[in-house]
Amino acid sequence: MLTRSGCCLCSGLAKRLQALLPPQTLQLMDVDQEPLLQQRFGLLVPLLVVGSDPFQDPILTRVPPRLKGLALERWLEKQLSQLARANQG
Fold first, then answer.
1. How do the domains of the chain map onto residue ranges?
2. Which of 37, 47, 74, 78 could make an SS bond with 2 (beta carbons 3.0 to 4.6 A apart)?
3. In this structure, how many other beta carbons lie within 10 angstroms of the beta carbon of residue 72?
4. In this structure, what is the dihedral angle of CA atoms 39, 56, 20, 64, given to the nearest 10 degrees?
5. Residue 5 CA to chain centroid, in angstroms?
6. Apex 76 CA angle, 24 and 23, nearest 5
7. Measured between alpha carbons, how far is 87 from 60 in angstroms, rounded to an integer?
């Protein structure tokens, strides 16, 4: 997850993702610690990267900030399903 220190949207999304069952494993990448990340994604955080390289791996559209629980889980499933279909075609 692309994040930045002090970002309430970022910390809120991380908490909501970790509250899902099973809890989601997150690797947090602070965009302000890496100039190239800051330049490309600076004000767009939080963003979920499907993989570990935000320059090569897919990035999901921004998670609506009010989604939580089952609604967040369904949103994630939909996004990942669309990504999988796009990669097949």
1. 2-88
2. 47
3. 19
4. 50
5. 15
6. 15
7. 14
pLDDT band at 82 (very low <50, low <70, confident <90, very high): very high
Report whether CATH 1.10.3470 matches the domain 2-88: no
Averaged pLDDT for residues 51-79:
95
Tokens, residue 1: 């997850």
Q: Are 34 and 61 in contact (CB under 8 A)?
A: no
- Bridge partners (DSSP) of residue 47 are 2
Length of the chain equals: 89
Q: What is the pLDDT of residue 30?
A: 96
Structure tokens at 75: 């949103």
pTM of the predicted model as reported, rounded to 2 decimal places? 0.90
For 42-57, give one letter per residue: b (16+ CB within 10 A) or e.
eeebbbbbeeeebeee
Per-residue confidence (pLDDT) for residue 52, from 0 to 100: 92
